[in-house]
Amino acid sequence: MTRMSALTVSVFIALVILFIFLLTPPRYPRQIPSVPFWITLLPLFFEIDQQQIFSQYIAGPLYKHGAIKIFFGGQWNVIVQRPTYISEVFKKEHIYNKSGNQKKIPHSMLAEFLGERSICPTLKSPAETANYDLVAGSNIISARDEEWRCYRAVIKPGLQTFSHPKPILENAKKLSNIFWQLQGQCTEKGILIQDVLQRYASANLLCCIFDCSELSSQMMSIEHEVPLHTTQLTLKRYLFRPIFMSFPALDRLASVIPSRVKARKLIRQFSDLLQSQILNNRTREGERSAKNNCLGDRLISAWRDGTLTTKQLRDNLNVLYVAGQENPQLLMISSLYLLGKYPTIQEKLRQEIKACNISDASTTDWRCLPYLTATILECLRLLPPISQLINRRAAEPVWLGGSIYISRGTYIGYNSYATNRDPDSWGPDADELRPERWGTTDEQISMKYRSAKARAEFISFHGGSRACLGEKFALLEMRVTLFVLVKTLRWELDPEWNEKITPVCDSASPPLYNAYHKLTLQAGPLYPRGVRLIFEKL
Ligand code: HEM
């Protein structure tokens, strides 16, 4: 054997050993089963969607044991489902430490997106040079301890003092007109709603949270391209390729894989654009509708006075912009899908809104629409925008629930989709959309909501000290959106749409196109991707 072929054989054997080592489930924790690694890769090869994978392979062991071991992101993790276990993880943040992608997969593109190192050349802050390298890549969602408290002090008031629905109301009316206009251009079939809703969710965030009203109106004129939006769409396509999500180690080769080179370029482009747009498009003082304590103002003041470095401003802007419109957008898609699938619930909602006879929705007391609130919570329960998230790491060995031994360094995550549908908490009809389960009056619904969150039976916004800070805004946005859409339009699912959650194939498309989509689109959250709705004006 020549020296070259001996080397090739050794490399091959080393790779096989590494692969077997990586893909063999760990022995610990011993008390819970492992989902075979190939199950998470099934959609790459077969016509099967994530909901099917869940019910066929994951739900059984997960509900039985309350936790499982699963291969994701290039490593084995523990997914916790049972509410009592989840409460424990939420409460013991000092043991189950937050550990975002920057720490878990620091070389990955995702980590680069959330905490990349370049400084926008247009910015200069006094504290920048002093602080720049102290905190590499962190943001409010992934940071811990002092750093998190610092971000939270800046960000929380900016997200929670907002409550005026007027700008959302105006955008929602435009949204209704856009849907109707698009429907007019396509008489026989349903229309795709995702792209429009992404612009709508961005518009709401830009005007209400960042106080950029001009940019917000540009987002709502869908006949015009908005670079921030188009860059974000392209970036998403490149960033979330399933092969790199499953094996982020491949990102170590990012500089030689053309699609990753492109992803890196897009990350910078998006981040630069976002930063300059938020800084340069803010509504002028005199033109503002209210005295503001908005998030945009707060972030910029904190950057100017040196509380945040340029890098911290940039990382937090990225993550707030993405979390602040991706999650509401997913909830809107899922809610419109569910209401199209359950027309009687849509009609009941319409009757409630009619009966309430609201003349000015911008001053409405939303408590007079309990069925609307219950419907939103029910959509959030059935299809939580963040269906699965693995972002905690055991700082020390610990017995979860007193019976599952978790060794130090184990990654732990949640499956909100499973917890929110647990029949032990929600009954045998847990998979059904039934808003009445939350109660019929505003008091009953609020009580049920508070108790379901406190008992970790409803975890769409997670819980404990690290619960979502945008919950209040997201719920208000959803109320206004559904209020306007249900009042002005009626919709149903396009019967020709292949009803699947995260479908990977479309039987009408050529095989090559489908193969490409399998590799590029099937990762990510559980929601009715590509849903088509048929609208009727009322
Ligand atoms: C339906 C909409 C939303 C859902 C379902 C949602 C869900 C979540 C979840 C599950 C977390 C915890 C993430 C983790 O543990 O890593 C979270 C955190 C967070 N969310 Fe949301 N979110 C939504 C909307 C928003 C909006 C509109 C904003 C505002 C811009 C926002 C800002 C945040 C922030 C700042 C955190 C970090 C909280 C902390 O760690 O202190 N979210 N969200």
Quick synopsis:
This is Cytochrome P450. With 538 residues, the protein is an alpha+beta fold.
Structural key phrases:
3-stranded antiparallel sheet, 24 helices, iron, Cytochrome p450, 538 residues, alpha+beta, 5-stranded mixed sheet, single chain, oxidoreductase, metal-binding, globular, binds protoporphyrin IX containing FE
SSE layout and pairing:
Elements: H1 3-23, H2 37-40, H3 42-45, H4 50-65, E1 67-72, E2 75-80, H5 83-91, E3 96-98, H6 101-104, H7 109-115, H8 128-131, H9 145-160, H10 166-184, E4 191-192, H11 194-209, H12 213-220, H13 227-239, H14 242-246, H15 258-280, H16 295-304, H17 310-341, H18 343-356, H19 370-382, E5 388-394, E6 398-400, E7 404-406, E8 411-415, H20 416-420, H21 423-426, H22 442-454, H23 471-488, E9 489-493, H24 511-521, E10 532-537
Parallel strand pairs: 2-8
Antiparallel strand pairs: 1-2, 3-5, 4-10, 5-8, 6-7, 9-10
Helix pairs in contact: 9-16, 10-11, 10-23, 11-12, 11-17, 13-15, 15-17, 16-17, 17-23
The protein binds protoporphyrin IX containing FE (HEM).
